[in-house]
Every structure is written in structure tokens, then in C-alpha cells.
Automatic annotation (TrEMBL):
It is an enzyme of class 5 (isomerase). It comes from Anaeromyxobacter paludicola. SMART domains: S4. Residues 186-197 have a biased composition (Basic and acidic residues). InterPro entries: PsdUridine_synth_cat_dom_sf, PsdUridine_synth_RluC/D, PsdUridine_synth_RsuA/RluA, RluA_PseudoU_synthase, S4_RNA-bd, S4_RNA-bd_sf. This is Pseudouridine synthase. Pfam families: PseudoU_synth_2, S4. Residues 15-74 form the RNA-binding S4 domain.
Length: 303
């Protein structure tokens, strides 16, 4: 990703945004317009997609450009079968691996909220997120009141989340609770590490199966919701996730290619945001994770 940081002067007063970006950024007007259409332009810190928007002295414009100048193709629409639940307040979907949970700096197209909204025919609000490569249960609010209630639930750790992970080795010990604060890794941008000065983070886990080659199927139940929490905690226990080279996990096991980070949000339990009735949702294990588990001699749980 390439970024441009631009600031308008008096000479730019009243200029169209697309022309300003092209002239001051040294790019073609077509590229400027594609960045605008994709959602990669921020005017005074807010996403702006209006090419004809006038700009005035002192305003700051940030432009995030996809490598090669064109955004990657948008993910396919969500299949109806991926809608696990919907009522007037709550929507739950089975997120496919590879779909971003929220808009990126370069685009607001193809993110999970947009796909869920298209499936329902109405806007939704994301209340918790999974990493791009992680699949599984994701909840959305459909009203402002539900969004506030769900946000408070996730902030205070009320929901029970259950994940399945394929790991290069079984964690040591094979079952337990890891209570290890997490903070940013100053040497690796966008990554986390165990840090006594970091935010509190705790994960319960148990090894469900170990294959003949030593790879393991692990169930993880995070008690907190820190970025990359399960990935970092299991790696800290010597059980890096398969397909997760950022945290020590291999992309191949012998002749087998690992297509992504092997993590799946299997189950989510929470009180309904309107009324508090207990709810539970499960997403089926995706074919890529199930197929690799079978090839490694790991039996998936019955439910």
C-alpha cells in the first residue's frame, strides 16, 4: 500500500477533490477517482468518496492507494446459508475466511458489514471482529440500542466464544488457562506479543486431538478480546497455528499446503441484546480446516 499525505493551500480553494489529488499527488486523475470510489481517500480524517467535493486551504487529505493502482476483486456475496440468525435487533453470520471484518484504509468495498447488509437488505453494525483469515460466527446489531447493549457485553467479556485451531504442536501443558498480558511488538508492525506491561488477556484451552505427526487440534475459549489473542497465546505455549508464519506457524506440513491461518470461531453464546434471553450460535467447520484436519489424522469434535 502506498499513501499520500496532502494539504491544500489558498491556491487550491474551490478545486474538485479528484483534481486536487491528481495534481498535488502526482498521479493520474483516473487513479485518483478509483481511490475515491474504492473508499481510500480521507478528508480531514473522514472517508470521502465524492470526486466533486470542493477543497479549501488548510484541509488535509490522505490517499491510500492499492499496489498497482487497482483494488483487488471484492469478495463474493454471502450465501444465504451463512446467515445463522436474524431478528429485528440481532444478526449473526458465518464469516468466510479471507473476508475483512471491517473496511480497510484502501477500500470500504467487500467488508463483512457490507456483505451482511446486502444479504439482509438493511444496514448492520459490527460489534466484534475476527481477523481476515479467521472464519466463523460473527454478530451484528441491527438497531442503535442493540449496538450499545452488545458493545457493552463484549467490553465486559459476557459472551462465551469457542474457537477451533489447528496447531503445529500441542500446547504445553495440553490443557489449562493462560493469563498473559499482550502488547504491541515494537519490532514487528501490526503484531502483538506477551508483555507484562500490556493489556490483560486470558485464554482457556484444551487439546482435543494429536495426530501421528504431532500436529494438534485445540479448542480455545478467550476470556478477553485482544487483537491476535489466541494466536499469540498458543504460540507462547509452543503451539503456533498452522498457516500463521507471523507467529511461527508453517505454511506447509510435509506435502500439504496450509491455505490460511487455521482458526475458526465455532460457537458464540450471549444474552439477546433486547430482553437478555440466552442465545447460542454455531458455524460449521469450513472445508479447508476440516480437510486439513482429516489429512493430519485429527478427528473433529462431533458438534
Amino acid at each position: 500500500m502506498r499513501s499520500l499525505e496532502l494539504r491544500a493551500t489558498r491556491a487550491d480553494d474551490g478545486e474538485r477533490l479528484d483534481r486536487f489529488i491528481a495534481a498535488r499527488g502526482g498521479i493520474s486523475r483516473g487513479l485518483a477517482r478509483r481511490a475515491l470510489e474504492a473508499g481510500g481517500v480521507f478528508l480531514e480524517g473522514k472517508r470521502c468518496k465524492v470526486a466533486s467535493r470542493q477543497i479549501w486551504a488548510g484541509q488535509a487529505v490522505t490517499v491510500h492507494l492499492e499496489e498497482g493502482g487497482r483494488a483487488a476483486g471484492a469478495p463474493a456475496p454471502l450465501a444465504p446459508a451463512r446467515l445463522l440468525f436474524a431478528d429485528a435487533d440481532l444478526c449473526v453470520v458465518d464469516k468466510p475466511a479471507g473476508v475483512p471484518a471491517q473496511p480497510t484504509l484502501t477500500t470500504d468495498r467487500g467488508a463483512l458489514p457490507e456483505l451482511a447488509a446486502a444479504l439482509l437488505g438493511a444496514p448492520v453494525t459490527l460489534v466484534h471482529r475476527l481477523d481476515r483469515e479467521t472464519s466463523g460466527v460473527t454478530a451484528f446489531a441491527r438497531t442503535a440500542e442493540a449496538a450499545r447493549a452488545l458493545a457493552e457485553q463484549f467490553r465486559t467479556g459476557v459472551p462465551e466464544k469457542t474457537y477451533l485451531a489447528l496447531c503445529a504442536r500441542a500446547p504445553s501443558p495440553p490443557e489449562g488457562r493462560i493469563d498473559a498480558p499482550l502488547g504491541p511488538d515494537p519490532l514487528r508492525k501490526g503484531m502483538r506479543k506477551v508483555d507484562p506491561r500490556g493489556e490483560p488477556a486470558a485464554t482457556r484451552y484444551r487439546t482435543l486431538a494429536v495426530g501421528p505427526g504431532g500436529e494438534a487440534l485445540v479448542e480455545a475459549r478467550p476470556e478477553t478480546g485482544r487483537t491476535h489473542q489466541i494466536r499469540v497465546h498458543l504460540a507462547h505455549l509452543g503451539a503456533s497455528l498452522l498457516g500463521d508464519p507471523r507467529y511461527g506457524g508453517p505454511r506447509r506440513v510435509g506435502e500439504l499446503r496450509v491455505p490460511r491461518v487455521m482458526l475458526h470461531a465455532r460457537r458464540l453464546e450471549l444474552p439477546h441484546p433486547a430482553g437478555g434471553a440466552p442465545m447460542a450460535f454455531e458455524a460449521p467447520v469450513p472445508d479447508d480446516l476440516a480437510g486439513l484436519a482429516t489429512a493430519l489424522g485429527l478427528a473433529l469434535p462431533a458438534r
